[in-house]
UniProtKB/TrEMBL annotation:
Pfam families: Fer4_13, Lactamase_B. It comes from Protea cynaroides. This is Metallo-beta-lactamase domain-containing protein. Residues 182-340 form the Metallo-beta-lactamase domain. Transmembrane segments: none annotated. SUPFAM superfamilies: 4Fe-4S ferredoxins, Metallo-hydrolase/oxidoreductase. It comes from the Eukaryota. Signal peptide: none annotated.
Amino acid sequence: MAGIVIDMFLNLKESSVAGINARVDENVVFPIHRNANSARVLFGGCWNNSGRQIVRNSIVKASQNSSNRSDALKATRQRRPQNVEGDFFVDHTCIDCDTCRWMAPTIFSQVDEQAAVVKQPSCKEERVKALQALLSCPTSSIHTENAPLDILQVQKTFPIPINEQRFPGVYHCGYHSEKSYGGASYIIVHPEGNILIDSPRFTERLAHNIDMLGGARYMFLTHKDDVADHEKWSKRLKCTRILHEKDVEVSTADVEIKLGGSGPWSLGNDFELIHTPGHTEGCVSLLYKPLKILCAGDHLTIWGSELSIVEKFNRCSVPMQLNSVRKLLDEDFEWILPGHGRRVEFKDIKEKNSALEAFLASREQPQIQSS
């Protein structure tokens, strides 16, 4: 009886619990034994001298609460009034993760601290990007008024090439996960084995598409926040997971490769793993040397319109994270692919270092003054 909750009766006319039949209607009397203390806690209500408890009021109240919860859930899924009229819209469950805004910037924008549709797609390219954002939304907060008949074709576009001319073989996986707070994941196709960087939301459709790219030899997890469905992906793709030991938790205890110390570590000839602690103690960035790309996880990004370490989400040490940014002055890259926020592009290494030095100067000066 200890595990019985009143909600189990809400949608059933007849039920049987521990061999006791109960019919749920407006005059229900639920028979139980006098010593069923656990049931008293769960159901409450009045007891009569025969050891029978009338639960009508409890059922009515529970039913009302369930109805209220259902109504509240439906309300959050309603169209936000900030959306423009038309097919696409964002509901009230948006967590303002920014995904849709950088995936389809002409369609979505931030209005009152959540995303909203500010322009309906007017051509095929805009529609495809809007549907890609819909599929990638971690909270399924984007909808269409009419069933999108082309959704299956859009599913086939994932993973999405970052820039086929400049960065061949580098893809954005899409399908962001709420478990990773909407973080982006990437896959790099490489002759020595493909590398999946952080975990997207698991879907068989995406897994099939990754198979078509050659699968994945490794799943590199930048830090503990963005592991999402790593276990499902590991089993499905039979890939080896990599995570720094400082960020290993119960859910990642069976990760195959646990990095120790402060690195750097090599992954074949073309990839270097750089310990960039601060956001978390075990945060590690991946440098794809031939294409000069840094996959930085939550270490460094564009937030708003400026370089940022997004310190309001820091889980370890801001000074440590700033020191890790300074380490990047010695690294050769021109692009940053972050887990959150916008991608960063530099014209060359000189511009990269100038931008990092200016950022560090702006962040370190306030700390000196406050100390």
